[in-house]
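Record 1 of the preview.
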Amino acid sequence: MASKINIVLYEPEIPQNTGNIARLCACTGASLYLVGKLGFSLSSKYTKRAGLDYWDSVDLHKIDTMDELLDAHKDATFYYLTTKTQKVYTDIKFKDGDFIVFGPETRGLPERYVKSDTALTIPMKAGQRSLNLSNSVAIVAYEVIRQNGL
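->
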């Protein structure tokens, strides 16, 4: 049985990344949660262009705060992607309904999430700062699919 993927973008800043991620969500059946203040308008031509005509196929949720999202899904597991941990995303066995949380492009997630036991990283060459947000989402989303099916 296919796993339900929940992708969370906490305060995303770049409309093209969000549009690309929305398109990925439409193609994989993942739900997309946009949390907090966005660095752009969802009606931005850049956001719409990046998502092409896939927006109508996205299970999109706009949530005001992470606490609101966490409270609404108390039984779910939330994984927080960061460069500030050693626990690699491929070491996790993802389950149906897990939430995969990504931070804003320029600053990452707040420390309270980065210090969580469920903080994960995508390995990369030493000395590099970070991967592109939409690439990171795709990498982890397809690991969930690899493990559980689409």
